[in-house]
């Protein structure tokens, strides 16, 4: 494993997903499978669906403001907020503002970047087929929950 420095222009293949731009900065192969890091720019009113994962996740809000749902509770997350999401915890983020927000997302283990990239491909033309979504989420240890609002 080699030490690395990456500038914003050297992100590892940015892609769009549900109103956000995902920029992988560190992949699992860079960390002996220990963690992955993605810079996410969440567009105005952008959101992720309510879901849980088989790995821990940490959000570090670096610009703007998000609301992060953990279980049944919403938490305001302005710039500077750090949120730890333990494995198996239902969670989502949303940007309630008219301005973009930026968050660094660290996940333990490997596979989160591949999951996100696969979701991007599945949703590029609109909502994915339910069977394809179920297969993709199960393969990556992700469980989706019905929307609450």
Comma- or semicolon-separated keywords:
6-stranded antiparallel sheet, 2 helices, 11 strands, globular
CATH fold category name: Jelly Rolls
Low-confidence stretches: none
Strand coverage percent: 35-45%
Structural class: mainly beta
Overall shape: it is globular
Query: How many alpha or pi helices?
Result: 2
- The CATH architecture comes to Sandwich
In helices, the fraction of residues equals 10-25%
Q: For the report, how would you describe the main beta sheet? A: 6 strands, antiparallel
Question: What is the distance, rounded to the nearest whole angstrom, between the alpha carbons of the first and last residues?
Answer: 44 Å
Q: Please give the order of strands in the largest beta sheet.
A: 1-2-3-10-5-8
Please identify which CATH superfamily we are dealing with.
Jelly Rolls
